[in-house]
Each structure stands twice: as structure tokens, then as C-alpha cells.
Write a structure and sequence with these properties.
Strand 8 (167-171) and strand 9 form a beta hairpin. The termini are far apart. Helix 1 (49-62) runs antiparallel to helix 5 and helix 7 crosses helix 8 (392-403). The longest helix has 16 residues, at 193-208. The chain is of the alpha+beta class and 406 residues long. Helix content is 22%, strand content 21%.
């Protein structure tokens, strides 16, 4: 682990985290209750079918046989043997998933998953993803970024721009982009998007002085923007099913078995794009694959209570959890009524997140329904509202009602 940073002087604009971030990586494994955990960065969520198969093989050979997608379009392997680090690294290198040992934790890049497919975006940001990844890994200074630092490359539709990344590029009509720092309300026009994103990241790193993790923590030290940002998408998550140019699928709580991953690779036309909303887009995939994918347990249709529903790991994988939140959440979601249609540009259901403890790992931003395990049941709260302690079936009913408070 890197050394804990020194305390910062009183009155500084930069907060002191008091420690270096402990984000796991492909080489830095995290010890969990169910074994070691590895997080493999996938810039833009982009995978070849061969790489997806390599990850499925690694999960079966070294871990618990499943893979988890994260809110940054990365992949986690759980239940790993404590002595498998060298073999895992060798497998990832052979698949082209570990291009840099020194920079592997800072390759956090999300991108519009439908870019270049449906004609809505202004740029196919996959080219930006690849260029940014190469230049990031080639920049010695970039190894000093926090493992939590995030780039978002939005093709102009406003989907990943809604994630409030540390550095966001929003494609413009002229080949350039608006560059946004953190949660700023204005953006700066840039002609060379990738170069500008790297320069912005270095600005944040220098201003952070090794103490802050995110751009939003040092707003007074960042250059001001000059242009209003385009409005974000009402619901950035791509609809499920057949889309122009391929298929869109959902993965329940982001966790899929190796067999499901192999099916995704088989159904794809060679490329898999993981979304920050724990789904997958298969460019070029045919509609005939929907039935076998649904039969395998993947989500293939929108309009159910599973929309915008997330949960932390819970028991038995996390010893701090007070409940098997994913099992409880799945029962509640499977028994809930379907989601109402989107009206007036707003999603039909509020996001909901089940948490096993007060840390609320993986919680969404904005307005959401907080379902917190208490040891006797769950405490259900809509952001800014009053909590309601419930148990059993009453918990599921309280969550369904709270999600309609939109």
C-alpha cells in the first residue's frame, strides 16, 4: 500500500483524506470474506469476445466462477485464491487486458455505450477511449492518480456525462468537445479532446498534492468553464432488447456466471461493451439471441422493477453486512409490479439501492431509495425523507411504494 499522506494545513482548499485510496486492481488484490477480489479495468467497457472468454476462464479456474460488472464498466473477480496473483496477471497479459503494471488502477474510463451505433451521438468516442488509454499509460505522472479518478467520454447524448466524473468530455458537432471538471456547471471548449483531458487530469493531480482523490474536492483550484453544458439524458441507461446496431442486455446486480459470459461472447459479433449501469451492449448481435440470453437469466426487456435497482455485495461476501441483501432484493424485485412508463422525460421509477451496512457501498447519486439492513429488517428512506423500519414482505411493499415517489 502507498504511504498515508501527511495531514494538510488548516485552511487549505484541498481536503486531507488521511490515507491513500485502497481501490483494488488486477495486481493489488483485496481480501474479502469470500476470498481475494481483483478489479480489472476495461477502458470504455470495451472487450473483444476473446477477452470476455479469457475472463470467464479465469473466474472458473481461480475464483468463484462468476464475474461482476461495476458502475464504471469494469469487471471484478471474487473468491480468488490468495496465491493466484501471478497466474491471474499472466492470464490478463495474454488476453491484452493488462498493458501496464504501473498504471493498471488508473485506467478508469467510461464511454457512451451506444456510440457509433444508433446515429444519435456526435462522435464515436471509442477512438477517444483507445487514444486516452494509450497516452495515459505512457504518462509517467499519471501513475500518481487515485484509483478512484474517473474519465467520462460522452458522445453528446448526455449519458455518461450524468456520472459527474472527475474529467468529462462531451462531444461537440465540430469534432471538438466541452471539457468539464467534476460537477462544474460550465464546460470549456477544446479542440483536441484527449490532450485536453490529460492536461485536466494533471491539473487535478497537481492541485490535489497527493491528498485529494477527486476533482470535486478542489473546486477553487480548477479553471472555470465558459459554456453551459447540454442537458443530461433523462434515463442514461440504454433500453434493453433490440437496438439499432445490436442488442442491449441487463445483468442482475452486475453479477453473471462464467456460462452467461460465454453466451454473451458467443452472441456478440466480436465485441462486448459493458455499461456503467451493469449491462452489456453487443454491437452487431442478432435478435435471435434474445431468447437464449433470457433463458440463461440475463435481462432482455425493459419495463420491470429491476430497472435502476442495485445492491451491495452483502452476506456472505462481506463480513460487515447485516443481511444477504442481494437475495432479499431479488425476491422483492421479482415480486414487484412492472415499472411505469417514462413520462414527461422522467424515468418511471426512482433508483433503489440495498445496503448491508451504513457504508452503503455502490450507492447511486441524486435522488434514490435507500434500503438499509438493520439486523431486524430494513430501513427504507427516499433521499431527504423520513425513514421507515420494516421487515419481511412489508419491506418489499415499502420499497415499491417509495420508488414511485418520483
Amino acid at each position: 500500500m502507498p504511504p498515508t499522506p501527511d495531514a494538510i494545513a488548516a485552511g487549505s482548499a484541498v481536503p486531507d483524506r488521511g490515507r491513500a485510496d485502497a481501490c483494488p486492481g488486477a495486481l493489488r488484490l483485496h481480501a474479502a470474506d469470500d476470498g481475494a477480489l481483483a478489479r480489472v479495468r476495461l477502458p470504455g467497457g470495451l472487450l473483444t469476445a476473446g477477452q470476455a472468454l479469457a475472463l470467464a476462464d479465469a473466474a472458473e479456474a481461480l475464483g468463484d466462477g462468476a464475474l461482476e460488472t461495476t458502475s464504471r464498466g469494469n469487471v471484478q473477480l471474487r473468491g480468488l485464491r490468495s496465491d493466484c496473483d501471478a497466474e491471474l496477471a499472466a492470464r490478463l497479459r495474454a488476453a491484452g487486458l493488462l498493458p501496464s503494471d504501473t498504471h493498471e488502477r488508473v485506467r478508469n474510463i467510461v464511454a457512451s455505450p451506444l456510440a457509433g451505433l444508433d446515429g444519435i451521438g456526435r462522435a464515436d468516442v471509442r477512438a477517444w477511449v483507445r487514444e486516452l488509454d494509450v497516452r495515459l499509460c505512457a504518462s509517467t505522472w499519471a501513475a500518481g492518480l487515485s484509483g478512484k479518478f474517473l474519465f467520462a467520454l460522452d458522445d453528446g447524448r448526455g449519458d455518461v456525462a450524468s456520472l459527474n466524473a472527475d474529467v468529462t468530455l462531451i462531444a461537440g458537432p465540430d469534432g471538438g468537445a466541452l471539457l468539464r471538471y467534476g460537477r462544474a456547471e460550465l464546460g470549456t471548449p477544446v479542440a483536441d479532446p484527449v490532450a485536453a483531458a490529460l492536461e485536466a487530469a494533471r491539473t487535478v493531480l497537481d492541485a490535489a498534492a497527493g491528498r485529494a482523490w477527486h476533482a470535486r474536492e478542489i473546486p477553487d483550484l480548477l479553471p472555470p468553464g465558459t459554456r453551459p453544458l447540454p442537458p443530461p439524458a433523462a434515463d442514461p441507461n440504454p433500453p434493453l432488447g433490440v437496438l439499432p446496431g445490436g442488442l442491449s442486455l441487463g445483468v442482475r446486480f452486475g453479477r453473471a456466471s462464467a456460462a452467461q459470459w460465454r453466451l454473451l461472447a458467443e452472441a456478440s459479433a466480436g465485441e462486448v461493451r459493458l455499461t456503467p449501469w451493469r449491462g452489456a451492449v453487443l454491437p452487431g448481435a442478432q435478435a435471435r439471441w434474445l431468447e437464449p440470453l433470457a433463458a440463461a437469466g440475463l435481462r432482455t426487456a425493459s419495463g420491470t422493477a429491476w430497472e435502476r435497482a442495485t445492491a451491495c455485495t452483502g452476506l456472505p461476501g462481506c463480513g460487515k453486512s447485516l443481511a444477504d441483501v442481494r437475495a432479499d432484493a431479488a425476491r422483492a424485485l421479482d415480486g414487484a409490479p412492472d415499472a411505469p412508463q417514462v413520462r414527461a422525460g422522467r424515468p418511471g421509477l426512482l433508483p433503489v439501492h440495498w445496503s448491508g451496512c451504513e457504508r452503503r457501498c455502490g450507492r447511486p447519486s441524486g435522488r434514490w431509495v435507500d434500503v438499509l439492513a438493520t439486523g431486524q429488517g430494513y430501513r427504507v428512506t427516499v433521499t431527504g425523507g423520513s425513514p421507515l423500519d420494516v421487515t419481511g414482505r412489508a419491506a418489499a411493499e415499502a420499497v415499491a411504494q417509495a420508488r414511485r415517489a418520483n
